[in-house]
Write a structure and sequence with these properties.
The complex is a heterodimer. By secondary structure, chain A is α+β, with helices and mostly antiparallel strands. Chain A contains 5 helices and 10 strands; from the N terminus they run αβααβαββββββββα. Classes of the chains: A alpha+beta, B alpha+beta. The interface between A and B is large, with 50 and 47 residues.
Chain lengths: 362, 272
């Protein structure tokens, strides 16, 4: 215990120093406010920005092919929202403010374990580690993932984007009630798609990724739905425009020491925040320390937003391995809710028949 | 001089013997083929690969047959295949053979492929979809097109955290050959559409080596004391997908299987 306490306090001291540097630089906007707050035990806190003067000189690791080595198990686990919350008028929190936000969110998630509630029957979040606070946080002092527009909010939606959203809502309504058929249930509950496409936003649980590199490829395995993006980095073109998919077609290249992945060819169903199938996402992965990758992305879809927008968050290291997320294979939730709905239909029909019979008797 | 010639002769005998051994132990391998190397000196098996055979219908030799749905005509009838099982029928225990026959009779309802379930091993290797080998120093990943399945082969041995559909794979190199030892399966996957099956005691040892720039030799020893009387082997070539810019595409089949799985629970029934 004693040594762990010591390590932790050393870590916190080092972290505070790193944060001070980050915060001092933050208004200039030149450096990411990436902070790794829980360094691995027995290791001093690694510097999270390359320019931190107090940090020991760090050498970017490289693969046998000589490109930056991004390999390992990573998380982007975070409570940082995509858009800056109303009433927050600054770009960065202080560390105590961030901790307060995390605590509030953790408490809200833990409410789902309150005995006797429906949420508690669904999942025991605490027991299965489904609340985010039980996993390492990829601390992000930013008040929103969005960095541009500078107000931290999505740009205005175009008239075409608004019409599309209305059309989609209308089409969904025509399909009937949520439990009339499996197709009406949200896509994530059906284990079809869980935001595995870029931009890589933190999921509600299982925020684990593995990156491995082979000659000419970077492969990103996402724990949720075992989504695997095998990304060639040799500058080859995208798949033909007729080939569309939920995750899109990812093609990469290196710009200096930054991995750039451009993804197009989406179908019209993954629809990140109401986007169209013409969305283009450009991701930039830059290793900033042994412990962190800076992840930046730009979403470009002129038919949905008046201009392109950009976000940023850190990925930090976690221990592996990635578990097999066999979701569809054990999806009793769909079976049981649909079966329950049909039973309810039957009960209602019988009740109506009884009422009819009674009124005829009178 | 004399000593040297003895040494040379002895050396040649050893070389010849080991080539002969290689030829006889790995069926079909071109004698002496040496795969290109990765930067860390290992045989380079990276690429997009695919089996070209009929094993997914039935890993044993089988005749052509009508498909499960007359409405699909000749599109989905069963193509004949020589099979990939070595040395005669699969050595089922008597009670297991009964279960296999029951599986076969009910295959149009029971095959996990119908539900887009993870295919397990070795089935993932010969489904009629490509897969990509991604080879780094510590891990060899296999990304399969079917159901977006994935296997990670740990080249530094690790314990399985839990049973799973795709099992837990530890690997090592034996010369030209990638040897993969996979255990910790659940008992839910099948070997093919003909109902060949296993229990959670399944143990698969695969040997994969390059036989030419564009094909691999694949063999697997299958052991399961709950189901088989002895270990048995399958073998087949895997071919490189040579199309320009060949890649694994997305085949998220859950969506296509939902009415198969949940259709009976629709408010408005599907047209029969």
């Amino acid at each position: 215990m004693h040594s762990r306490v010591l390590t932790t306090s050393v870590g916190i001291t080092a972290l505070a120093a790193a944060l001070a540097v980050v915060l001092a630089q933050a208004p200039a906007g030149a450096q990411a406010a990436n902070a790794a707050a829980k360094p691995a035990a027995a290791k001093p806190a690694p510097a999270t920005t390359q320019s931190a003067p107090a940090a020991k000189k760090w050498t970017l690791p490289r693969t046998p092919e000589g490109v930056p080595d991004l390999q390992g198990y990573w998380t982007n686990n975070s409570y940082t929202p995509l858009e800056r919350p109303d009433g927050v008028n600054k770009e960065f929190y202080t560390l105590p403010e961030l901790r307060a936000v995390e605590k509030k969110n953790a408490e809200r998630e833990e409410e789902q374990t309150t005995p006797g509630t429906i949420a508690d029957v669904h999942y025991d979040f605490t027991q299965f580690g489904l609340d985010r606070s039980q996993t390492r946080m990829a601390d992000n002092l930013r008040t929103s993932v969005i960095t541009n527009p500078e107000n931290g909010k999505l740009p205005p939606v175009t008239p075409e984007g608004k019409k599309r959203a209305a059309d989609r809502a209308e089409a969904r309504k025509k399909q009937g009630a949520q439990y009339d058929q499996v197709q009406n249930i949200p896509i994530g509950s059906r284990c079809v798609y869980m935001n595995g496409a870029p931009p890589m936003m933190p999921p509600a649980y299982n925020p684990a990724y593995q990156i491995i590199q082979s000659p000419g490829y970077v492969t990103i395995l996402t724990e949720m739905l075992h989504e695997t993006r095998v990304v060639p980095t040799d500058g080859r073109p995208h798949a033909p425009a007729t080939v569309r998919s939920w995750l899109g077609d990812s093609k990469g290249h290196w710009e200096g020491d930054t991995l750039v992945i451009e993804t197009t060819n989406f179908n019209d169903k993954s629809a990140f925040r109401g986007a169209s199938e013409n969305m283009k996402v450009t991701e930039r992965f830059t290793r900033t320390s042994d412990d962190a990758i800076r992840y930046e992305f730009t979403v470009d879809d002129p038919s949905t937003w008046e201009r392109a927008w950009t976000g940023e968050m850190p990925f930090v290291k976690i221990n592996g391995p990635i578990f097999e997320h066999a979701c569809n294979e054990g999806n009793y939730g769909i079976l049981n809710t649909l079966a329950g709905a049909r039973k309810e239909d039957k009960r209602a029909a019988e009740e109506a028949a009884r009422r009819q019979a009674r009124s005829e008797e009178q | 001089m004399r000593n040297r010639s003895v040494a040379v002769t002895t050396g040649m005998v050893i070389v010849v013997a080991s080539v002969w051994l290689a030829v006889t132990t790995v069926a079909g391998q071109a004698p002496g083929y040496r795969a290109p190397r990765t930067k860390d000196g290992k045989p380079n098996l990276n690429g997009v690969w695919q089996a070209v055979n009929e094993a997914n219908w039935d890993i044993e030799g089988h005749s052509a047959a009508p498909g499960p749905l007359w409405q699909l005509g000749a599109q989905f009838s069963v193509p004949p295949g020589l099979g990939i099982v070595e040395g005669g029928p699969i050595p089922y225990k008597p009670e297991a053979l009964q279960k296999k026959k029951a599986n076969y009779a009910d295959r149009a309802k029971l095959d996990p492929e119908l539900k887009c379930y993870l295919p397990g091993v070795p089935r993932a290797m010969y489904m009629p979809y490509p897969f990509q080998i991604v080879q780094s120093t510590e891990y060899v990943m296999m990304a399969f097109e079917f159901a977006g399945a994935v296997r990670t082969v740990y080249m530094k041995k690790q314990q399985a955290p839990a049973d799973s559909w795709m099992g837990w794979s530890n690997g090592h190199w034996e010369g030209e050959t990638l040897v993969i030892d996979t255990t910790d399966f659940n008992d839910l996957s099948w070997f093919d559409r003909a109902g060949n099956f296993h229990s959670d005691k399944l143990h698969v040892v695969e040997r994969i080596s390059a036989a030419s720039p564009d094909h691999l030799n694949y063999e697997a020893t299958i052991e399961d004391p709950n189901v088989f009387t002895r270990p048995w082997k399958i073998s087949m070539p895997l071919y490189r997908r040579l199309e320009k810019n060949a890649q694994i595409l997305e085949y998220k089949c859950v969506e296509f299987a939902e009415d198969f799985i949940y259709g009976h629970l629709r408010k408005v029934p599907l047209v029969k």
